[in-house]
Amino acid sequence: MSTQSFLEVEAKFSVAESTQLPELTRLEGVDHVADTRHHALSAIYYDTEDLRLTHAKVTLRRRTGGNDDGWHIKIPSEAGRTEIHAELGEPVDGRYEVPSELLHQVRSIVRHNELTPIAQVDNKRTEMVLADADNKPVAEFCDDHVTAFSFLPGGEQQSWREWEVELAGELPGTEEGTQFIRRATSLLIGAGARVSSSPSKLKSALGDSYANAPLPPALVSPDVDPDSPAAAVITALQANRDKLVDYDPRVRRDEWDSVHQMRVATRELRSHLQTFHGIVVGPEIEKIEADLKELAGILGVARDAEVVEERWQKLLESEDSDTLDDSTREHIAQDMGTAYRRAHRRVIAALDSERYLELLESLDRLLADPPTADKQQESAPVNDDAEQTEEQSSTEEGAASSESREDNAAAAEKAKKKPEKKSKDKSADMDTVMAQHLEKAYNKLVKRHKKAVENWDNPELSLHEREDYFHDMRKAAKKLRYAAEAAGSATNLKTKRLYKACKQMQSVLGDFQDSVTSRDKLLELADSARRRGENTFGYGLLYQRERTIGLKALDDYAESFKDIKAAFKPLRKKLK
């Protein structure tokens, strides 16, 4: 079944039945009404029992009538909404099935939940095509008389009239299009219309019955003290869980930068679970961390190919020495693009897997009922015996990541020395607890910095081994940055300066690591070329250029580390 996709940018207006339509050619850019058509439209909207699509501002419908009858799905995007169409198809066993191409786009939201009809919207539409002086369409204006039925408990029949202006041609997503919508809004409001308070016909159709549906797990408010460190961590985790789900359909459509952003959300989720271990605890954490690591790795292969392809195109553009033969240029220009497409297919396979869907379910369960340390201490039997404390810490160790185990062991040792410490540490306020976790992340960064600097000129290590220490440093800066962002957004801690310093370090070491990855891929291409009996001189030339670029990136390393040190000093005062 074929599908079509395009960007939808529109504005909706509520209007009384008696309101007269203004002269639309008064709009700048509109020369005449090129065509006027009348349609009788009928659409059935689908969603899960708990309205997951509606809550995510996604609409899925099967519409008959008009010039675009078929299945339509509308998904939020940066400049408006992405609308994807599929053919009506034939019923199976007396019912119409949602096309797999469209279901694929919302798998991260729907998962295994059944999609059923939730509303019907019938519409008598007058559609006008607004064209410029060259007879090119600039917008479509619709005058709709709507009758709708909600199939939810308590649903009722409703009727209303609305106007709709939708950009056409090349205007969607442009500044010119934005200005056109503004002028149209001014004209229509002047004629008596009001900007619609409802984002869609579906929302209007559901009316008050919308509140009768159960709440999706992702929207359940967790039972945590809003002034606790756990609340800050949960808020940070929720934001990245939402980002993960939001970028899923964009990755499937292979939108620009979508793989990178989804990978960032995945890594940040895992980083928070590691950095703030001890605030959010429990055996399920380890499984979630492992699944996030696996997903980040798969996304990473595609992202690396994407980055290297871009670097190589720039290298080719700047190489004017005539030392690259045609064969080398062809491989440099095309091979990483082929590798990216192959890696992207593996990403899609991962997003369609049961493991990924279960990961999303696990995150929802975790965030709806977070296993915080306070809850575990409240439910655990009171026992101040040091041996009991050690056993409890040992259990938490098994659930933690490898980096968190060191923290758990230290915590157990402290518990032995201070068995009189209360199970609920009321004396430590939220700022102090979060600052303590920031300090742990900072101390790890300092250790990795020392290893990287001390071993840079170590003759006993290979080049890759020495470079790997800086790669570890980059990961530490990333974790500290994520932790600073989470703490700063939920507490009174001033972490903005630390966040910026870590981001700058990431940028420095990111450029360095990209050059390392590019060099590795150049070596792979050179080996393949050598086996084919081709000239490999050009690969060596580009390898050395990438080596120089990487070393140049490290020029700002020392200054970036000083900035991180200086930014962390005020936070140390909080701990004192």
TrEMBL record:
SUPFAM superfamilies noted in UniProt: CYTH-like phosphatases
Region spans: Disordered: 371-430
User: Domain named CHAD: which ranges?
Assistant: 226-566
Q: Which residues form the CYTH domain?
A: 6-209
UniProt superkingdom: Bacteria
Q: Which InterPro entries match?
A: CHAD_dom, CHAD_dom_sf, CYTH-like_dom_sf, CYTH_domain
Composition bias (Acidic residues) maps to: 384-394
One short Pfam family name for this protein?
CYTH
Protein name as annotated: CYTH and CHAD domain-containing protein
Q: Which organism is it from?
A: Corynebacterium kefirresidentii
